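Running low. Any example?
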Amino acid sequence: ACKPISDNLAGRRATFSRLTRPGCAVNAGPSQWRNRVAYGLFCTGSTTNRRRTGLYVKSDNRAPVRLGRPRDAVRFGIRTIESVDLRGTRVAAVAADIYEYSFTQTTSGRSLRSFLAASSEGDSDARARGLVIESHAAWWTLTNSSHASDPNETTIQRRIGPCAQIERLISAPEAEFVATDLAVDHGTLYLLVPGAGIITHTVPPEVRAACP
């Protein structure tokens, strides 16, 4: 019976309407930008209805539109959306299963870019926990991963075009993850740090963007 709502932090709340379909529920987001809303929908029931699971964008009073997924997510049958962000005409999301893909595209479904953000196999467990769009060309993803007998690791990736800037934060032995979420505002990066709250974070200059 949960309903997604918006809150302008000034006492005004509103319920998002007409986002779902019969047998479906919002399971990620919504993320709102002016008259657009992006969100993940998880559907159950018949095979046909389950196939409706995915990333959706709704504009004004129009019907929701389901967007595409990365090629490998389609190949492995990964439909579940875990995280969503929306900025202008750009939407980003994480398609999650054993493999998790962070991807971005326009709200009309064009210019899809993606990468493998996490994989959980054997004694390894990894989850893409944080996702945020910085600009039309750049987006960030935070992944938490744990491996047998190794310290926990938090990986921060900034993708801009074909280039990747990757920073790895290693936890102290038997400690929690260094960070569990992230946000960006006007170029300033914030991390959600267990036990400390929200802090600003600067990526060291030696962490350079690598391009193929």
Remarks:
- The radius of gyration is 18 Å.
- The helical segments are 47-50, 71-75.
- The CA atoms of residues 131 and 137 lie 14 Å apart.
